[in-house]
Amino acid sequence: MFSYKGCPIWHMRMKLDGDLENWLYVFMDQECRSEETGILMEKIQLGYGEERHDPMDVINETHLRYFAFVNNLDKPAEEIYSLYKERQNIE
């Protein structure tokens, strides 16, 4: 776990089996997850609009702040997360 702008970020980093170049990075932003879980609960309680949804549809839409990707950069998870967030802010 590390901190990004004061928010705790859980992470996992591992070398892919049989792959000499690629790494798997998985991150979860606990604070954002709590926020999105609250939003999810509000949507469920309010019937989430006129369109009928199954509760799993809403969960799938929010993903509860897990994200994962594979790349060939052998860097600490904190650095990869920072690069991702910088890129996200540009787009």
Could you characterize what this model shows?
- There is one protein chain.
- The protein is 42% helix and 27% strand.
- The protein has helices at 30-45, 55-62, 77-90, and strands spanning 2-4, 7-15, 23-29, 66-71.
- A hairpin with a 2-residue loop joins strand 1 (2-4) and strand 2 (7-15).
- Helix 1 (30-45) packs antiparallel against helix 2.
Main-sheet strand order equals: 1-2-3-4
Low-confidence stretches: none
The secondary structure category is: alpha+beta
Gross morphology: elongated
Helix-strand pattern: EEEHHEH
How many angstroms separate the termini?
Answer: 26 Å
Give the fraction of residues assigned to helices: 40-55%
What characterizes the major β-sheet?
4 strands, antiparallel
| Number of alpha- plus pi-helical segments | 3
- Proportion of strand residues: 25-35%
Mean pLDDT: 75
Radius of gyration, taken over Cα atoms and rounded to an integer in Å: 16 Å
Q: Give me the count of strands.
A: 4
Tag the structure with descriptive keywords.
single chain; four-stranded antiparallel beta sheet; 27% strand; elongated
In short:
The chain has 91 residues and is of the alpha+beta class. It is built from three helices and four strands; from the N terminus they run βββααβα.
How are the SSEs ordered, and which strands pair?
Blueprint lengths: L1 E3 L2 E9 L7 E7 H16 L9 H8 L3 E6 L5 H14 L1
Antiparallel strand pairs: 1-2, 2-3, 3-4
Helix pairs in contact: 1-2
